[in-house]
Fold this protein.
Amino acid sequence: MPTPLPHGQDMAPDDVSPEPSLPEEFAALLADYERHLTAERGLSEHSVRAYIGDVADLIDHLTRLGHDDLSALDIRGLRSWLAKQQSLGKARSTMARRATAARVFTAWAQRTGRIATDPGALLASPKAHKTLPGVLGQADTRAVLDAAAVAADDGSPLGRRDLAIMELLYATGIRVGELCALDLDELDRTRRVVRVFGKGRKERSVPYGVPAAEALESWLAVRPQLVRDGSGPALFLGARGGRIDQRTVRRVVHARIDAVSAPDLSPHGLRHTAATHLLEGGADLRSVQELLGHASLATTQVYTHVSSERLRAAYQQAHPRA
């Protein structure tokens, strides 16, 4: 069974190792591995770039140790590579990701006969510090969405689009990349369900409520005003008629939240907020896992800690003998 890749937030661009210049045989090996990640694992372009950068840096370290063959890679070489990363002051989360990248690569190399044993199986990951994701309270969330609705009252296509984006992100908890990739035929307006392709192109269906449905209908009524040659089937369009990009969605979310002076969040923060509110409303953990598209239940369980922390804070603020 292939080694699973970690699921979580997108890697920041400055966490990605630049690809060094490698000997021809190593460059060919890296090209084969890149094809594996893209074609067989179905990873996004951004994730492939991150993992290839990490592995290229590992191979460069191997060549600097005087080796010209992958068979020379052992656990000592892997540990010295990670020690070098640590000496450069890399964050623990980055170190953990790079250790995972090394393990996935060495497992693939053994599986495909490029090395006899898998040294990465002995490599432990530095544990990343767990931080609770920021979320909006239900009152703040209502205020943000109400303000977005007021802004959409001018009837402009962009105002209605922005309201539909905010409502759909909160209603479904989908990732910003998933939202940008949505096409018109992936929206079931009768059943109020959206078909989403998540990480690894895994498909799931996510329901949404009446407010999101109303916002979407309002947007779809004016969407033709932004359609241009090349707009294609994209559900959400940018001001020039192309498929909306993640940067624009982030700008929309920050602007709508800032308008009511609520704690600033990214689109991923709205995903956290949706999950937390579902659990606070009584949804079971497995259902939330399926809605969010998490591969592991442990990833979803962080939201139970968020709810517990919020409950503890409310108790300490309100109870006279807290």
The chain has two domains: 13-122, 138-318.
